[in-house]
């Protein structure tokens, strides 16, 4: 048999030309692209990537800052809180009772005005701290405690100021406590049992004097008033008109000396004008034949 040779397959000339042209075009484009990349600094690509990531973050942050500065967050929070509190009323969390403990002198209406609450108010909206501050601005209130007692009660405990003395100033009397706070200038007849003090600085020094007088109760009950002399010491004015002149220092020792003398040999009921206790080792008694006729309430006595 005769051998048959397979024909050699070859691409037409125009096909090879087109393929070569495509390859040259692709190479040229790749070269141009590489050249463009080399024309920018190496860090620009990273910067652009970071910019794409940071832009949304900065945008969100700016929106948040705007909302904060314009009060949008606060307004929305307040509205949400108010809506939630209103819902608690339906659950029974509303003020139905106000319990006040320790109120003796403080006016009831003044208490209610200070705590600013009324029946039916949402109890969670009530501010105990603001109520406490309002109560402690009242004259008679030294300290106050305010609590919310769920579901429906506001509890108030008052620690009222304690009257100490009647203070004469500018020809008028005022009731004061141990801190010198003026409590009232009206209806003072209820406090006639208190010591009357005279002098601009009398309230400051009165607690010390009262402390010493409390150690000699028999003498204390005879004292009607006490006046400051020269801002340095006290004169006591007894009910029978006798004046007891106290020293600047060691008031307690001088009063005890007088009290002991009264037990041994009473002098305060004699026909005398004054007893001077300013000398530490003796009593100086001022008397005269006409002392009984001249005995009167001192000019500074109330």
UniProtKB/TrEMBL annotation:
Transmembrane segments: 47-68
Keyword annotations from UniProtKB, A to Z: Cell cycle, Cell division, Cell inner membrane, Cell membrane, Membrane, Transmembrane, Transmembrane helix
Membrane-topology descriptor: Single-pass type II membrane protein
Pfam families: FtsQ_DivIB_C, POTRA_1
Localisation: Cell inner membrane; Membrane
Superkingdom as given in the UniProt entry: Bacteria
InterPro entries reported in the protein's UniProt record: Cell_div_FtsQ/DivIB_C (IPR005548), FtsQ (IPR026579), FtsQ_C_sf (IPR045335), POTRA (IPR034746), POTRA_FtsQ_type (IPR013685)
Domain POTRA: 93-161
Annotated family: Belongs to the FtsQ/DivIB family. FtsQ subfamily.
Function: Essential cell division protein.
Name listed for the protein in its UniProt record: Cell division protein FtsQ
Organism: Skermanella cutis
Organism classification: Bacteria, Pseudomonadati, Pseudomonadota, Alphaproteobacteria, Rhodospirillales
Gene of this entry: ftsQ
